[in-house]
Write a structure and sequence with these properties.
262 residues; globular; single chain; five-stranded antiparallel beta sheet; disordered N terminus; 29% strand; alpha+beta
């Protein structure tokens, strides 16, 4: 769903670019075509936005692994995820190129899903804007500070593992524990953990399975990216005998949207 502009369907990443031994990083390319915007505003004065993403494929747990998860869940009193933040470590690198004859400003936002909850900033913006004529307010799960890029120039950047760790904590707090929406997303938990008191002690945080990249710019620009994954427990799907882990996460709806749909 896209409020303003074009959305490219999410692409299932079938295999890493290169397989390696356990604990060595695995690399996944962004789906084609490359994210590209013209910079021209629409009839409402909104800048073009485009999105694509990839879904990491993980294997199902073995019988023993599932028994261990069930035992941990029973002991804690709540579900322990199969794909855990402490075992799966994600990093994203990007390259943005300004193909225009003028400088421009670009923005990148990262959304995604764990095995329980999916976050989509476009859906959230629609909910927050319901009933008013204000410009959409996009609040990504993992924000990237907007940057100015000179005409004809390129810039690269990295969204680090600790950035993903913060986003994964926020998504679980919102999805499973009904933490306050604005407080959790706007504040860095390392600086101000407001809202996270809703999260029970001992919780095991799920890692992202789906990574969605939103891109916008006020000039003609492209964004290409790649995802690096460190898979501590060899949970990514790549052996012939593996079966695909296929959870069905629930789409997160902020209070503004829930109020209109109940």
């Amino acid at each position: 769903m896209e409020a303003n502009g074009t959305r490219i369907g999410l692409v299932l990443c079938l295999a890493p670019l290169a397989l390696a031994c356990v604990n060595a990083p695995l690399y996944f390319a962004s789906p084609a075509p490359v994210l590209a915007v013209t910079g021209a505003k629409d009839a409402k004065g909104n800048l073009p936005r485009i999105e694509n993403g990839l879904t990491l494929q993980f294997r199902n747990p073995t019988k023993q692994e599932q028994q261990d998860l069930d035992t941990q869940s029973a002991a804690l009193g709540f579900m322990v995820p199969w794909i855990q933040r402490s075992h799966v470590h994600i990093e994203l690198t990007y390259v943005v190129t300004n193909g225009d004859t003028k400088p421009g400003t670009f923005g990148i936002g990262i959304d995604g899903a764990n095995e329980y909850t999916k976050y989509d900033e476009n859906v959230v913006a629609m909910a927050l804007g319901a009933g008013n004529n204000n410009a959409p307010n996009y609040i990504p799960l993992i924000p990237v500070t907007p940057q100015i890029l000179a005409a004809g120039a390129s810039i690269s950047g990295t969204i680090r593992e600790d950035d993903f760790n913060e986003g994964e904590l926020d998504l679980d707090a919102l999805g499973r524990w009904m933490a306050p929406f604005n407080a959790v997303l706007i504040n860095n938990s390392q600086v101000n953990p407001i809202g996270l008191d809703m999260v029970p002690a001992g919780v095991v945080i799920p890692a992202l399975l789906e990574i969605d990249v939103n891109f916008t710019a006020d000039a003609m620009m492209t964004c290409n990216y790649g995802v690096r994954v460190r898979d501590d427990d060899d949970q990514l799907l790549h052996d012939a005998g593996d079966t695909l882990f296929s959870p069905t996460p629930t789409l997160f709806q902020p209070p503004a949207m829930m109020a209109t749909t109940n």
